[in-house]
Amino acid sequence: MLFDSTLRKDLARSFGVTVIVILTVVLTYLLIRTLGQAAGGSVAPQDVLLLLGYTSLGYLSIIFALALFIAIVACLGRMYRESEMTIWFASGVGLSRFVKPVLRMTAPVLLAVALLQLVVWPWGNQNSEQLRERYEKRSDLSRVAPGQFQTSRDGSRVFFIDRDSKDGSVGRNVFILTEQKAQESVTTAHRGQIEFQGNDRFLTLSQGQRNEIDKDSGDKTLSRFEHYRVLMDTQVERTDAELPPKATSSLDLLRKPTPRNLGELTWRVGLALGAMNLVLLGIGLSASNPRRASNWNLLVALLSFIIYYNLINLTQTWVANERTTLPRALLALHGSAFVLAMLLLWWRDNSNRFCLARGPRRAPGDTGKPGACA
Question: What transmembrane ranges does the database entry give (predicted)?
Fold first, then answer.
């Protein structure tokens, strides 16, 4: 009882600290990236924090899996370095005895990882896509800062405007440079207003002129107008079928088993299964020799996580390209990882028992302190 409670407390404390550290690093990176997107005109500045929240929720499953893996390796590695493991091994507690309390502590986290992957990940991506799409559907005039030149979404127009209304649909002193394949036009107007007709968006200009230049012949045309209406673009509502696979719910992925959808489902289920395998791998990879000055178990564990995560992404690509099926990809990767974790755990456990049964050995030429089994 004391063994289980002490181990769970140490793991919980180490997991909490690791989550805070990794989450701080990830949030800083995501904030910098989101601010860059807002500065580039991809997202609305007022939606930065909301988009950051949705993106962070999507990455929580990966953060929890990595933090859990690091916490197990760090906690058990500390017990090796401080010779606590030697005491437990001498008391008849093998390394396999650590699996039960570790799984009891990590079970809620593994369940949270599965829910985050299968439910929260597509929900967050869907809301992020809606924020970006809503900003893209706003009028070009509403995205132009007063007194500054800015390019439209499709890159064919350059705007300069003095905004005249709070909603950005009306502006004064409008300047528009339009460049097409064979023509280039400069339109100026005293006043401009955005109007909607169905899904189409029109720009209505008042009291202005339009100067057109034919690039092929060099002919110039100057025309003045009192009212001029031009189609800016057509707004097409995106349906659920047009959502990317990462923004589609897991049930919809199962209902529409296209290669891309199955690839996305392979990644989601694979990360949930990978988190469980990483728990078992962490127990075996935490072993270290307390007599050595440098311990590389944490570095090896991080390298193992990177390799495993890249293999999960690789299986997603293979399933999406129809090089393999979803069951085969999951069984080949995660079944192999489970067998490897069990073999590593068995080898560590039996090597420790063999060492204790053989007793301490002396180093060659050493008549003093006995050596220890590595």
Answer: 12-32, 52-76, 105-124, 265-284, 296-314, 326-347
Structure tokens at 215: 């690039």
Structure tokens at 99: 């699996």
d(CA 167, CA 196): 14
Alpha carbon of residue 175 to chain centroid = 41
pLDDT digits (tens, 9 = 90+) for 298-338: 788 889 999 999 999 999 999 999 898 999 999 999 999 99
User: How do the domains of the chain map onto residue ranges?
Assistant: 2-135+242-358, 142-234
Report the 10 Å Cβ neighbour count for 337.
Answer: 21
183, 213 contact by CB (below 8 A) = yes
Pick the closest to residue 232 from 332, 135, 156 (CA basis): 156
* Residue the block writes with tokens 């590593």: 344
User: What is the DSSP annotation of 49-107?
Assistant: HHHHHHHHHHHHHHHHHHHHHHHHHHHHHHHHHTTHHHHHHHTT--GGGGHHHHHHHHH
Amino acid at residue number 169: S
Residue length of the chain: 374
> What's the pLDDT at 110?
93
Give, in degrees to the nearest 5, the angle at Cα 185 between 168 and 44: 30
171 or 26, which is more confident: 26
- DSSP string across 208-231: EEEEEEETTT--EEEEEEEEEEEE
Task: Lay out the sheet containing 157-163: strands in order across.
Answer: 150-151, 157-163, 170-179, 183-197, 200-214, 220-234
Phi then psi for residue 322, to 5 deg, are 60, 30
10 Å CB burial of residue 357 (0-12, 13-18, 19+) is: exposed
**Six token digits for residue 123:** 């929900």
Q: What is the pTM of this model?
A: 0.72
- Closest by CA to 248, choosing from 230, 260, 235, is 260
User: pLDDT for 186-209, tens place per residue?
Assistant: 888 888 777 767 666 677 888 888
Alpha-carbon gap, residue 284 to 340, rounded angstroms: 10
Q: What is the dihedral of CA 362, 367, 368, 372, to 10 degrees?
A: 0
Contact 237, 199 (CB under 8 A): yes
